[in-house]
Structure formats: C-alpha cells, structure tokens
Amino acid sequence: MNRKNNRGMKLLHAGMGLGMKAINIPRPVLFEGPGSSARLSEILEKEGRTRPLLVTSPGTVKWEYFQKIMESLLQNKLEPVVFSSVGSDPTTGIVKEIVGRYRDEECDCMVAIGGGSPMDAMKGAAALTARPGKDLGSMQGLLKVGKKTPLMIAVPTTAGTGSECTIAAVITDETRDYKYAISDLSLCPKYAILDGSLTVSLPAGITAMTGMDALTHAVEAYLNTPYHKGDTRELCESAVSKIFRYLEKACREPDDIGVRQNMLKASFEAGEAFTVACVGNVHAIGHGIGGIYHKPHGLCMAVLVPIVLLDYGQAAYKNLAKLAIRSGVLENDGSGERTMALRFIDKIRDLNNSVGIEPYFDDLDRNDFDEIAKRAVKEAVPLYPTPVTYSEDDVKRVLTLAMGE
Ligand SMILES: [Fe+2]
C-alpha cells in the first residue's frame, strides 16, 4: 500500500475508532484465584440454571480437576451434560454437534472448560443457537449475530487466548482449511473463572505458545491506538509486564500456582484489551498459516510477532518504546524511541528462545503465499487499525522473512 493510501486508511481508522468508542463492549463478571472453579455451582444457582452443557476436550475430562468440578455440580443437585469432543481448531461441524446436543439434552446454559478451542466452540454454538436459521460462516465478521445467546460461562485452562472475555470466536471451515472469526457483543461470556490451579498440568510447550499468544494480543492492541478507550493501554502494559515476568517461570516451574494465576490474569487483561482495540497483522497472517498448515495458533504468533514488529519500522517505534518502558520490560536509558523499540523486539525474541520456540518456520510452501496473503489482507483491512496497512505483497515479504530468508 502506498503512502497516500496509508494516510487515507489512517483517516478511516480514526473515524472507525469514534464508532468503536460509542459501542459499550461487555465485560464478564470475574471470579479469580486458586480454587475459584469450585464456585461454578454458586454461579449456576444464582442464575437459576440446573442443566449446564459442559463444552470441553477429550484430554480435559481426564484431569482430576474436571472430575472435581463434576462432583461439585452433582453434589449441588445440578445435572451437567458433558460434550467432550472439541479438538484443536474447532470446526463448523463440531459447533453444529454442540448445538444439537444442547437442544436434545434440553440444557439451559453453556460452560466451556478448556483452552481457546472449547471456549470458541461454545461461542460458535451460542451464535448458532441464537440464529438457528443461519449458516455459521455467514456470521463471519463484526456484529452479525445480533440476538440473545444462551448464558455462557468460561473456565480457561490455558493462559493465552483470552477468549473468556472477548466477543470473538475463531472457527475453522474444514471444507476449505479456512479460519474465520465471528465477533459480536452477544458472544462475551457472562462469567469468567480464572483458577490458576487448573493450569498447573499444562505442558511447557503449550504454556509457552499460549503465553506468546497473550503477549501478541497485548502488543497488537497497544499499537492500534485509534481504537483505544478507557483502560486499554493500561491493560496491555499490565499484561506485557506479567508475561515477561512469569512466562518463562511457568514453563520451568509448572507447579507454581501463583505464577500460573498471574499468567491467567495476563491473558485475561490482554483479551480485554484486544476485544476493544482488535489485533493486527500478526494475527491476520497467523490465521492464514494456521488454517493451511494446522500449526498451533500460539506458535504462529510467537514466530511472527518479532518479524512483523520489525517490519513496521518507524511507524511502530514510538508506541513499542512506550510499551517497553511502561511495562517495566526496559528501563528508559534515554537512547531514543528507535533503539528502545528495537531492544524490545529483541526481548521478545529472547523470550521465545527461553521458552524453546524456534525463530522461523521451516515448512512453509511458497505456492501457498498468494492464498495466505489474500486471506490476511481480507481479515485485516480495513478493520484492524495497524501502524502499517499491509498489501498482499507486504504479507508475502513477511512470509519470506518468517522462513528465515
Ligand atoms: Fe491470538
């Protein structure tokens, strides 16, 4: 995109930012702290619900904490129904299965227990339950659901996606290996429970990747200044501060519940920030790569984030330097915005390295670049108010850099 068009895009984003500021984005009621998942029964009773559909994954149901949650619900005379078939990258097909189960079992609310996939699957199912006559894919984009969804409660067991507090659900159309986001105010769960003790069993690799996803949410939201309102900036700074302080430790000392609790909170803060300010080109490109190569979302984020930030150049220096200093990642030594921004990007690379994430992808196929670029630009333009608006050629340049070339 040439400079003139980029100026036009900035004006458009300023206008869209005014519109975004007028929208009252919901926030979930938060329960937090080790052991807080035991309060699920209390929430359901308060809401007068007796038959929750627990949306989860085959792995999660085997954990002791899941059994404890089930026992607590049964002891409180509730009648949970379990749907445990959600794998990574929830598909349109899985979402339809959840909707069928919800209706057949006559459930009265939905509870997601798991990482981003069960939470997004629950939200997709809630959208389809609200709009039964609609095709899920046709709700892609912003504010296409527009109807009351079933009561949703999110209990994250990974610290990264932030889906417990966002208005977005990322769904995969399995017929085209295509990931798309449905964003609607009605998709924000009414309650979120952040219980650090549920994440201690998470393997180091997943902890690392999901943590880098949260970092990417915070950094991309921070750079999208036209959409900022209220405490967006502070949420990003707080999340970045915690992630730099705790992510490596969470990988090294997985049983430290205090560290885990801080990572969950960081993920939540980053989620609240990007639900207002949106994400950026790292996500737009990462969704394309993740959809085609079935790579974990957090891994795509981790590899792409330093590459894209460096590629933004001058347009991002000021805010990256500010973020680095205000989050406490770097001390202001007076070396100037450019130097501070570049050092911050180096710090992100160092963090990747310290948690065992490789700096490049070794299996991208150039034949896929046109398709990834097309999808990325479709996702990001004009919605995301990124420091630089990418053209398809820009995306292809980043993809080449992501191969280490
Ligand atoms: Fe993400």
Report on this model:
This protein is an alpha/beta fold and 405 residues long. It folds into two domains: 222 residues, Dehydroquinate synthase-like - alpha domain (Dehydroquinate synthase-like, alpha domain), CATH 1.20.1090; 167 residues, Rossmann fold (3-Layer(aba) Sandwich). Helices cover 53% and strands 10% of the residues. Strands 1-9-6-4-2-3 form a six-stranded parallel beta sheet, sandwiched between helices. A three-stranded mixed beta sheet has the order 5-8-7. The chain is globular. The structure holds fe (ii) ion.
Features:
405 residues, alpha/beta, binds fe (ii) ion, 53% helix, 9 strands, six-stranded parallel beta sheet, Dehydroquinate synthase-like, alpha domain, Rossmann fold, 2 domains, three-stranded mixed beta sheet
Task: Please outline the helices and strands.
Elements: H1 3-22, E1 29-32, H2 40-47, E2 52-55, H3 64-75, E3 81-83, H4 92-104, E4 109-114, H5 116-130, E5 141-142, E6 152-156, E7 168-173, E8 178-183, E9 191-194, H6 204-223, H7 232-252, H8 257-277, H9 281-293, H10 297-312, H11 314-326, H12 337-354, H13 369-380, H14 392-402
Parallel strand pairs: 1-9, 2-3, 2-4, 4-6, 5-8, 6-9
Antiparallel strand pairs: 7-8
The structure holds fe (ii) ion (FE2).
Q: What summary fits the major beta sheet?
A: 6 strands, parallel
Counting helices, strands and paired strands, the structural category is alpha/beta
Terminus-to-terminus distance: 22 Å
- What is the spatial order of strands in the main beta sheet? 1-9-6-4-2-3
Quick one: how many beta strands? 9
